Amino acid sequence: MWPAISMPIIEMTILGDTSFNSLLNASIKIYQAGYAWVAFVVFFTSILAPAAKLLVLLTVLLHIKFKRHTKLLPRLFRYYVKLDTWEMLDVYIIAMLVSVIKLFDIAAIHGGLGLYCFVGLLLTSILVTVKLDKKQIWESIEDLCKKNES
Amino acid sequence: MQKERELTAKKAGMVFCQDCHKLLRYPETQAHDDLECPRCGAAVHQREPNSLTRTWALIITAFILLIPANLFPIMTFTIKGSGEPSTILDGVLMMVHHGMIPIALIVFIASICVPFLKLAGLATLLLSVQFKWKTSARQRTTMYTLIETIGRWSMLDVFSIAVLGALVELGMLANVKAGPAGTFFCAAVVITIFAAKSFDTRLIWDD
Is ipTM over 0.85? Predict the structure, then answer.
């Protein structure tokens, strides 16, 4: 559960290449091509949702650790649970693999620095999902709320 | 003869919060409409109201959207100045021609099979609940879990277009442009995910 706290350090993820591609770049390009809706979905699932998830979880965990209470705490953790479906980094990396294989004949392709960060981000966020005990968090939140009332 | 149904939370006069999984006593006299979970503040219903209707509506919408998604070109791949718009199926066929069978299979499963199978699966679940088919509840639960976990992977093609579009931008030499099917496909996938979410799995357990 605690490794979650060290995670947001690697939020900025860039996949460099000769004609430069990054997570952010991908959604900007598709926006410029005139598909705003697709761009939004790509942006949301590959950047916003993973980042928001980590931030929300960090906030909740810090509150529990320092026994601070806000009224928003249960709501925040509910958002975390809801964001779970919309975080699609794992799908994204397979899509990247598919694209790279498609391009293999016509171009030399090498991963940039961002690729390592991306893989790191992916692995750690999977670990967080596996390690996180939601029931325990809900119980801690409930305790905090009760203490606050009495 | 079918075995007697097990005890459900509903029969025991309990209710289960879908958000934080807290088990609550279901008040019998109070008005039920604005029941809130004391732990997480989510609205609690013994069975989600209008779950079936809403899910049907979303399934039909997604199905309609899938038609243009498969007929319109999803991207235009231009190499050395020449290139044609291709649909999802064209892309898969092209990869088969180039001998990239495993990748072609992944794309085929993720972007053609899964969206249709998901909708068909959800529709079957809804029918089985509506007409009280005597299939095993366990089978239906497995089916739902499968639909829910597999759904996100349909986004593969959307991401793939985004990555290719950003990566392959070398003017006349090689260029990838997204096509109109992208929007339809993306919408279909998102709506299918919403459809899966709006289905109240607890309905499976009612006779």
Answer: no
